[in-house]
């Protein structure tokens, strides 16, 4: 592997030899003040600036130079200032931005040692000492060019630290810096002479591995790195557990350019995190296909509401053998892909902040339809966590009911337990306000998420919905029977009704009736109906009710 020679720093020179450099090379921090150490090493007094940048060069136009400094970054060309600066033999300055430091070189002399120092600073991370993003790009480009047309292979690994942010948030940024330094040392301890580690930014690292045996060798190295990070770090005497997730790509199998390899390893890293973190995943072309499909859906989703691609289906809810209402279910018909499952597009809509608008549309559509039903029929509408946490929710719901003319007691809002993870004052106030307005509140999917009984004591629910997970094997599984029986009894003792979802067989319905379950919902009563089919369904249901009374 091509190696970049380590620069010989001026701070490593003997005092007598280094003393002559103070007139040519100076280091300042981001506020242009003198610095005490460089790359963690204390500067000898002979090369330590005695004053700020402005005191060294009082003849400079401070406002103009400050403005020019702001345009500098690690990838910028150095700033050159020409002219006599009041120092004998001086013909100007060359100023380099290196991380949070400014390196100032007087331009009358350019010695190799100074250039080596600046080269090292420009290509290495000041915190960990690892090569930085600039050096990574150069190395990867060169290695791929050298391997082109040969049988040589190369592997690239992207590493992200898991749970690094809580360390910064709880122990402070100084502790976070120590952790990054320790992480760099732990990475280096796993590498051979054919591997090189880099720090790209924040808690992002990469490893480039060459030699024989790839990509299998890279997979073994990645597993070694994951195992190494399972051991705790000790920061200021405190054990800290921070794992790593790794994405692997190989050349030429996954690409022959830096951009292709980075994209492939990034997708593999995303998959590793999605599958639970603390693991390594190698790139697979199917990852790219899934990402492209997901991004295409995300773009389409942003236009779906405006282009009227959403529609609502209604699933009947029965009580004592009679229909008492419907649950409104959001559906999306993509013009090219057809029906998209709600489990696919609703999380996207929530992540992209679209659910408040989509939810408001569903609520209005459902309420407008419910006005046409018999006066004793209710309509149940799902309320996502993203909608629930939106300010002004209760006002918008109240305005929708007023606009449509639907009585509040005919609307039931269904929320899941994820909405209630934080029992904040705002959450309680929102539910209490909805309750005061006369709107019914249902706790959906009870028993499948967090199921804290404190929710039932703290929040004003009217209904608990038992998830179909407990209903599917209800006729044969004694554990499901025990759980459902307990939920029904608990709800009734708290003056709440119970609805069972996913009821598909007469045997399930009979058992639920036997334990006092109030309402049933599922394919036994009906599959979700298109809006055009509701009138006919209600007519048949009302006729059946009349016949049942006779």
From TrEMBL:
Lineage, uppermost ranks: Bacteria, Pseudomonadati, Pseudomonadota, Alphaproteobacteria, Hyphomicrobiales
Protein name: EAL domain-containing protein
């Amino acid at each position: 592997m091509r190696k970049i020679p380590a620069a010989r720093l001026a701070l490593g020179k003997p005092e007598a030899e280094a003393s002559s450099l103070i007139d040519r090379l100076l280091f300042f921090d981001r506020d242009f003040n003198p610095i005490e150490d460089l790359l963690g090493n204390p500067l000898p007094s002979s090369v330590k600036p005695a004053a700020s940048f402005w005191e060294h060069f009082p003849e400079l136009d401070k406002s103009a130079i400050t403005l020019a400094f702001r345009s500098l970054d690690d990838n910028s060309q150095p700033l050159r200032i020409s002219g006599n600066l009041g120092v004998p033999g001086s013909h100007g300055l060359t100023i380099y931005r290196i991380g949070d430091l400014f390196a100032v070189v007087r331009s009358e002399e350019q010695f190799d040692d100074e250039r080596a120092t600046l080269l090292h600073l420009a290509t290495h991370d000041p915190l960990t000492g690892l090569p930085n993003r600039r050096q990574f790009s150069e190395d990867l480009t060169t290695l791929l060019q050298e391997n082109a047309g040969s049988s040589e292979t190369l592997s690239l690994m992207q590493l992200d630290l898991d749970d690094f942010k809580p360390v910064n948030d709880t122990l402070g940024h100084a502790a976070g810096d120590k952790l990054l330094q320790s992480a760099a040392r732990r990475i280096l301890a796993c590498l051979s002479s054919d591997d090189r580690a880099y720090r790209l930014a924040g808690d992002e690292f990469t490893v480039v591995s060459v030699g024989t045996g790839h990509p299998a060798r890279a997979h073994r190295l990645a597993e070694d790195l994951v195992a190494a990070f399972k051991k705790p770090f000790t920061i200021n005497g405190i054990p800290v557990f921070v794992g790593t997730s790794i994405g692997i790509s190989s050349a030429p199998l996954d690409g022959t350019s830096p951009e292709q390899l980075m994209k492939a390893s990034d997708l593999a890293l995303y998959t590793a995190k999605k599958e639970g973190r603390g693991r390594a995943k190698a790139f697979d072309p199917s990852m790219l296909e899934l990402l492209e499909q997901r991004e295409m859906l995300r773009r389409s989703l942003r236009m779906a509401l405006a282009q009227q691609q959403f529609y609502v289906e209604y699933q009947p809810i029965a009580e004592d053998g009679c229909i008492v209402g419907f649950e409104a279910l959001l559906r999306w018909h993509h013009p090219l892909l057809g029906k998209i499952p709600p489990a696919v597009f609703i999380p996207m809509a929530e992540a992209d902040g679209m659910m408040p608008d989509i939810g408001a549309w569903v609520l209005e559509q459902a309420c407008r339809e419910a006005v046409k039903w018999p006066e004793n029929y209710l309509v149940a509408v799902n309320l996502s966590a993203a909608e629930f946490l939106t300010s002004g929710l209760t006002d918008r719901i109240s305005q929708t009911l007023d606009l449509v003319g639907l009585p509040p007691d005919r609307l039931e809002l269904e929320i899941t337990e994820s909405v209630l993870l934080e029992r904040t004052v705002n959450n309680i106030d929102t539910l209490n306000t909805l309750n005061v307005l006369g709107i019914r509140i249902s706790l959906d999917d009870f028993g499948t998420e967090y199921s804290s009984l404190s929710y039932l004591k703290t929040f004003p629910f009217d209904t608990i919905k038992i998830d179909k997970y407990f209903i599917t094997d209800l006729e044969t599984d004694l554990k499901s029977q025990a759980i459902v029986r307990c939920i029904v009894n608990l709800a009734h003792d708290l003056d709440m009704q119970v609805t069972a979802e996913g009821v598909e067989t007469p045997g399930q319905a009979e058992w639920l009736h036997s334990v006092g379950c109030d309402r049933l919902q599922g394919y036994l009563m009906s599959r979700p109906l298109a809006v055009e089919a509701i009138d006919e369904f209600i007519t048949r249901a009302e006729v059946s009710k009349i016949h049942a009374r006779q």
